[in-house]
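hi support,

uploading two proteins for the ticket. first:
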Amino acid sequence: MSGKLAIVAAGGTGGHMFPAQALSEALIGRGWRVVLATDERGAFYADKFPAQERLALSAATAKANDPVGMVKAGVAVFQGVMQARQAFARLNPSVVVGFGGYPALPALLAALLEKRPTVIHEQNAVLGRVNRFLAPYVTEVACAFPTLQMAKPAVKARAHVVGSPVRPEIRDLAQVAYLPPEVQLRILVTGGSQGARLLSELVPEAIAKLPEEMRGRMKVFQQARAESMEHARKIYRNAMVDCEVAPFFRDMAGRLRQSHIVVGRAGSSTCCELAVAGRPSILVPLKIAADDHQRFNAKLLEEAGGAAVCLEDELTVDALAGALNALLKSPERLARMAKGARSVAVPDAAEHLADLVERTAR
């Protein structure tokens, strides 16, 4: 089969998988073949992933204070490296691209052992643990945010700021003008792949406290945990709010296109998609996120005037209701926020990263 082949290693969360998918689509458009190396959690987000093949590599992680878990994780990663090397002997990839997270580790380690060209991409404003470990050894380092926290000076000096690749349907929203609300008020509530319980339970209660006139012309699209869905629907029903509640929206681009404001976590994909789509937001960084990276992610949008940031420790039903009320009754402010969000967007991040991958492979 003709064409160069790239191994794209990602998994665990949508924050890793969505940029990996966007890069893969860009590479395929240039005549490349793509094989995805992932884990079981990553497979949940890979239903539309355009890989010709998927490699299920053994991988695991453990807390530093769990010596037994560390040994088990080490054994799992070693097995994954051996599996990857066996696959490489058959596929002979021209380059291996990792998107962070422990599922990407075996493929990158195998590539380094075989001295194959390697690229890592960091989606967050803080260099993650796996990428932090790999960064001094890989061929090239790419990142989404110019403020690459936790990176050593030598790594930061050679990092390529390319933005975070977004899916084509999200990128298309960069050409869609933001129209402030006139009659209907449309709110999108996302939870991210982790820590969604707080928003699942708190947002409906906050919306129920909004003025009746506002609730009467509101449409809410809310991602919620399965165990929280019926409770959320009940609150909305009692508050006379039109809603659609689901555990996951496959058509996120369609929801973003319709929304006037987004309430969500501050994962890298969320922040970069909000910027490209030019949508105002209220962001609640996940408190337990490693190295507080979601707070640093949110800072970019906040400083650009595109987002209001509420820390978990300060978030109450009344505080969120007040923030929503203030924004929804001010179309002019929402329009300014939309403009601010779009000012930091990098819609062509997938192409920029694909350029780097091709240069590295050569």
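and the second one:
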Amino acid sequence: MPTTSSELSTPQPSVSIVVPVRNEADNIAPLIAEIGAALDGRWAYEIIYVNDGSTDATGERLAAIMAQRDNLRQLRHARSGGQSAAVRSGVRAARGAIVATLDGDGQNNPAFLPDLISAVEKGAGRVGLAAGQRVGRKDTGFKKFQSRVANGVRNSILKDGTRDTGCGLKAFRREVFLMMPYFDGLHRFLPALVRREGYDIAYVDVIDRPRHSGVSNYGFFDRLWIGIMDLAGVWWLIRRKKPTPGVTEVNA
């Protein structure tokens, strides 16, 4: 039976950190320690790891740390559903009004989480998303070229004003994310879809770094070629969007 918020012993968090992972056992403990160092004493928060069908010791490493840290939760997919599915599972389970995400491989530095979360808070309801924008990327030259092409094509078609949608460091209002139409690859199109709903976007420069251990589990075809059909679909959604009418309740 799924765990409900009433069964959890931790106080109601204002912020939920969602980390999608697949076969990242050696990166679990260092990243959780860094998240704690960045957020302890600043917000009431929870960390939700979404174990996306891992076949290594990821689940066991998380379980061991959960015994020591009562604000850590683990969700498990019986089989891998991909990064977008993992993020969605985490956001749906989140108890915080603001959700922040980062990749589980250690390339996203948790030290930037406070800036992202604060940008959403300071937006006073106008900012639906704070998006990390990577500088000094540590990927291979081919990956960087691939991202430049994908971001350039996307921005020329969707006009989302975002130079880097692939950065896992993001913060957003949970209710705004749940308004989005779900599809595989959603996380790469959040800026365009958030703008579609009439919200502003804040941008935060973040410094990329090499992954701590292991190799990428979400590969080339996930990032580029499959995204072509997603791009066409998001373009269609934006074109079909009508202004949301103002609504007032009429009392007798």
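thanks. also noticed: The two ends are 44 Å apart (CA to CA).
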